[in-house]
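Sat 14:20. Reprocessing the chain from the morning session after the first attempt stalled halfway. Input below, unchanged.
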Amino acid sequence: MTDDIAFNREHKFEYGVLEDLTPSLRRLTAPNPSPFTFHGTGTYVLGRGNVAVVDPGPAIATHVDALLEALQGETITHILVTHTHVDHSPACALLQPHVDAKTYGYGPHGQGKFEQGVQIEEGGDMDFTPDVTVRHGDVITGDGWSVECVYTPGHTSNHICYAHREEKALLSGDHVMGWSTSIVSPPDGDMGDYMRSLELLLERDDEIYWPTHGAPITNPKPFVRAFLVHRRLREQQVTRCIEDGVDTIEKMVPVMYVGLDERLYPAAARSVFATVLYMVERGDLRHDAELTVDAAFALN
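Finished this time. Tokens:
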């Protein structure tokens, strides 16, 4: 199913080493590998001398210590957060006592849904609230660098990408990654928002994406188009499942994700649920009883 996306799972790095990527961008990879984080969270450093840290990462003291050691002689002036999953923002609390820098982000976990009157379940970094709240189109400037905030809800409702304007580079967080598709898990994750956020990126002129996990995406627009096609193919799979009498998400997952590690079935089920909710929103599907992950679905 993912053959339509040219994934790149080659990623050379060394834990504990701040690597140079471009003249104004560096990255330190946190030691938190998993089926959801690939080799780990990539903490980016933007600028030289007076710098911004983007996604400090999970609450791993050795990772923060390595970052501080690598930046001796430089000053962290900004801490930017793409979103509040536990592999991205918790290290802010470990980093801030050592620096005089404010955190920037869209809001606490679930902020985008709170604005719509939707309450979400806990599942992210519920302790994080940014010192500075940003919105789509805001520009943050530092010493020799600037970023434009690009609001991209879908993976989470508070997901922000940061466009490094001097290099036409997008720090894409988990919105678009080169090694895997993003998990979209309701209620905070929203497939309709995710698709619209992908379409938004096609209107931009970014030349390279630097995701928080894995290698850069050097030809982004065809990659984003492939992601859109991939999600539409998932919708077609849902339709075929229902036509074949496979009408619950629990039954759909093994059919739609052939060969997937069964440990990832729960995450896949959340993603299928997001697809189904989007199809219900458009009027393509109806459901019995309460609209939950356990409901049975039928075509309209």
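The radius of gyration is 19 Å.
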